[in-house]
Amino acid sequence: MTATRVPGVPVIEDGVLISTNPATGDEAGRVPAASDLDVNAAVEKARDAALWWQRLGYDGRKERLLRWRSLIVRRIEELAQLTSLETGKPDADATVEAVAAIEHLDWAAHHAKRVLGPRKTRTRLLVAEHSGHLEYQPYGVVGVIGPWNYPIVTPVGPISGALAAGNAVVFKPSEYTPIVGQWLVDTFAEVVPEKPVLQAVHGLGDVGAALCRSGADKMAFTGSTATAKKVMAACAENLVPVVIEAGGKDAMIVDADADIAAAAEAAVWGGMTNAGQTCIGIERVYAVAPVYDQLVKEIVAKAGKLRTGEEIGPITMPRQIDIIREHIDDALAKGGKAVLGGSDAVRPPYVSPTVLVDVPADSTEIRDETFGPTLTITKVADADEAVRLANDTKYGLGGAVFGKKNAIRIARRLRSGMVAVNSTLTFVGMGNLPFGGVGDSGFGRIHGEDGLREFARPKAITVRRGRSLLPSTTFERTPAQVAQIVKAVRLLYGRRS
Ligand code: NDP
User: Fold this and answer.
1) Does 222 contact ligand 1 (Cβ within 6 A)?
2) 3 pLDDT exceeds 70?
3) What digits encode the pLDDT tens for the residues 209-260?
4) What DSSP line would sit under 263-324, residue for residue?
5) Considering 279, 283, 298, 449, which one is annotated as catalytic?
6) Which domains does the chain have, with CATH numbers?
């Protein structure tokens, strides 16, 4: 039986998920689709694998993870080509994405022991006869659900953290990018052949939902805010903790003392790389009045040079094209002006660069995630107004500020998890920085120290090392001893400052 194929729309035929290129319809590959039973079986196998993986210890896991890292580096062209085939993104973009994933894998492997390993805490005077010990223990099995837009780096971030912390991982790639997901799992198995420490389960959204209910001990979800709510609801049934990396509507603020050429270049890159299908993509630009005209001119000039079908790949998920078209149309209907592109820019499977000005704040192009190569540029009186408008969103993922004197101050005031000053998206490429949002963009963190701790439970242990001078936790304490405790507390903490 052969279903009608639409380029880029995955189909399941006879239990096999077939993935195709969104522009050409060329087949990217096929993988078995999982049933609920398959998902549960994968988690069971992972539970056993996790125990073996934990026994390797931090050093043993580091060695394997670094071998996986090096293998990915050696085969980076193959991974980039596969990603480009499956998503339609330019090869160079896929390569840069792989580089970011390698950075996170390397960082997590090198730092897990320091961040999560056992350490002694400092003595507390009131219980000085006890030593305190802290370590971070793995959850066991972590379920990772990934999106299609960055099918390498978005899952490799949480997978690296989870594996380095000592968990086994069951990974559900997006139905649009299962082949890249399987490649990651297969290459990991080349360096860890003993046990299924990293597995993939493939299929549509129901497979992700099954993973949430499978008995996995922690879930890491990256995808849309709407699906995040479903994931949380499914996880709530068994109190499974979840880290949510959801959508964004990131803003760039351009202050009066900014380098305008650099800001324009960054806005175009931040807004249009991966054809704008970037969770931390710049979708809104707020420029102060003195630099606004020049910035618009330079953004239009630079974005106008991008070639659709070359630097600007197809929209990976065909139904997203309708959303992009609706946002552009809504902006224009409400009084916005297209200074580049516009409604005609939407020619499936492509959307050409579109720059809109004078777009009212209630337009969907300003309020909702567009996920296409569009930018709005809004003139503001000053940085205060820029911050107010930038923060007037339910999302809060990343952002950017261009300027000199006040740039870092402005960055601090943005309601978001990350901000790049005088660049865009840079934070996603730094292994030691946490990544995650606020509000509808989610909570919890991947990457960096926080991203490692996300996949481990803190375990506190106290060890008595002598007799209690101030015994408080016993029925055998005397009134005199309680009085002594109060005296000690007054001495230690009773002063006004
Ligand atoms: P979706 O929310 O549609 O899907 C994300 C994943 O969830 C997919 O694997 C999907 O499977 C799966 N899924 C769908 N339904 C369910 C369900 N009921 N229960 C469990 N899992 C389910 O997002 P997209 O794949 O369209 O990705 C784009 C979105 O991701 C954008 O909003 C973007 O901003 C966001 N994103 C956020 C990032 C961040 O770090 N904050 C990074 C990258 C993207 P299937 O594909 O098979 O439907």
Assistant:
1) yes
2) no
3) 999 999 999 999 999 999 999 999 999 999 999 999 999 999 999 999 999 9
4) HHHHHHHHHHGGGG--TT-EEEEEEEHHHHHHHHHHHHHHHHTPPBTTTB---SSTTHHHHH
5) 279
6) 11-247+447-456 (3.40.605.10), 250-394+398-433 (3.40.309.10)
Percentage of the chain lying above the pLDDT 90 cut: 94
Q: Which residue, judged by its Cα, is nearest atom 43 of ligand 1?
A: 279
- Choose among 146, 403, 365: nearest CA to 271: 365
Residues listed for the chain: 497
Q: How confident is the model at residue 2 (pLDDT cuts 50, 70, 90)?
A: very low
The whole-angstrom separation of Cα 85 and Cα 77 is: 12
Q: Choose the residue to mutate in 224, 245, 450 for probing ligand 1, maximizing ligand atoms within 8 Å of C-beta.
A: 224
Q: Is 172 in the pocket of ligand 1 (CB under 6 A)?
A: yes
Place of tokens 């050429």: 261
**What secondary structure letter does DSSP report for 262?**
H
Closest atom of ligand 1 to 172 CA is 9
Residue 4: the pLDDT is 54
